[in-house]
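Sorry, explain these tokens?

___
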Amino acid sequence: MTTLSIGQLAKATNVGIEAIRFYEKRGLVPPPERSPSGYRRFPQHTVDRLRFIRRAKHLGFTLEEISELLNLHDDPKSDRANVKSMTETKLVHIERKLADLERMREVLSSLSAECSGHGPVSGCPIIEALSKDD
């Protein structure tokens, strides 16, 4: 079986060496065998696992959620309903974030429109709005 050094694995997956070590410590990547000289030797399937982790992170899943997804992936008895449920929960979270960001954009846009951008800071509508008590 072909194995990879941690450097080769990092290059093949575009994941940093420190991140690979971190994922190993967190249990997302199984501990690799060691060569007689003590170097980590990762099996080829670790490439797929790290790519899975990277893609899941890019979609906003936390490491805890990724761990759950990997556990579901690894268990042949798992039901895809669990994966769908996790995804729908993540979607709700993202929708809330988007709504929050939209509100922030509207407020900042309004404040920016109120400010001339000239003159002293005292009396600036942006500073005054930020200084208000909630």
